[in-house]
Amino acid sequence: MAWIYLFVAGVLEVVWAYTMKQSYGFSRLLPSAITFVAMLASFSLLSIAMRTIPLGTAYTIWTGIGAVGTFLIGIILLGESLNPMRLVAAMLIVSGLVLMKLSSS
Length: 105
Description:
Blueprint: H1 2-22, H2 29-49, H3 55-78, H4 84-103
Subcellular location: Cell membrane
Keywords: Cell membrane, Membrane, Transmembrane, Transmembrane helix, Transport
Organism: Terasakiispira papahanaumokuakeensis
């Protein structure tokens, strides 16, 4: 169950990063509110997952999901560029996540 909490926490990190961008410096109410709720839920689920999953593994996977997820959201929804170097960087993050998961007990 801890891995599910961790995955959802990572997805919520993507949500709050995206809605923070949409809040325009917290000047728009709805995206700002969603940002804070998603942050609280993400941190809460991360802390629950850390009861079972080691700190280094949990935090690395949480930030990795957030990094790759926001990278994809940036490309898909915000029209950010996709070039070979950015793609390789994202693949390196994903490979690091897989190795971290495989190395955890």
